[in-house]
Amino acid sequence: MRGSGIGWITLIxxxxxxxxxxxxxxxxxxxxxxxxxxSLGHGDSIxxxxxxxxxxxxxxxxxxxxxxxxxxRATLFRPPASPSPKARLPLVVINHGTDDNTRLSVSMPVxxxxxxxxxxxxFAVLLPQRRGHGATGGPLAEAVGNCANPDHLRSGLEAAxxxxxxxxxxxxxxxIDEQQVIAVGVSSGGWASLALASAQPDSLRAIVNFAGGRxxxxxxxxxQICGESNLISATAAYAASARIPTxxxxxxxxxxxxxxxxxxxxxxxxxxxxHVELSVIKPYGSEGHxxxxxxxxxxxxxxxxxxxxxxxxxSDTVDNKDSMPEQHAARFPIVLQETRVPGLR
Length: 345
Hints:
With 345 residues, the chain is an alpha/beta fold. It is 33% helix and 16% strand.
């Protein structure tokens, strides 16, 4: 964990809190529950954790996830403080990808250059680490099925549960403009963000998808997808109830989700009723799947994303309730202020 995210004072306070809780654990059941929380490293604290760092006001936050036993570790970046104490910031929630081989050892998601692009445009940026990854820990609920028989639909919805919980919590923060929120995702985080769009939440203005999908590099093979037909059908299911704008970026040399897949997904999304703008950009370095990873990416997608945000951040909030097909209203229930994701409990 980076030194800028947590300091000695915070550690001391956290230790005092744990001691106080231990003193209150009078029964065996209470003591067992406390030991469980301590073993997970979660405690009961939700919200900011430690002081801001020098880099874009970097700060560790702990935010709710879909499972109360595994609150999410998150990195928050913000632009320089406003002289107005009542100023509210638009929010972007950036959602990370997944590598099954390294998911437990990964550090906190940062996506420095992608985050900086948004911070320089006045956004607060939250990067939650979903269940089953890194410091958040817990089971990998979003991996449903296997490569031979994947369930990409349910996998995306499971990941969307965590994103939805983080968005709901951050919209309540006094420095966030609750009506100006977008979700951005990279790789499986892009797929999870598209799953979230299928809820048609009034809390989101738009989705930005960088190289999104699931099942890439099937059995370690470049350009191969686990359950490609399943991925296409899940895309149609999401798009049928999605009514917010989405902007997609893929590269011509993406070995996980090549242009053929990107175009098929976008065509399916559009034909199922979703709104999509797709850009397949020129080859990016040695691996196009990394188009969101460094400063060079700005030159490829920055101008068009600026235009897209200028449109969606100024538009009126879309009333999605009246436009959702009846069959999808039954399958994907929506509770607007509780922001429940379709198909989620």
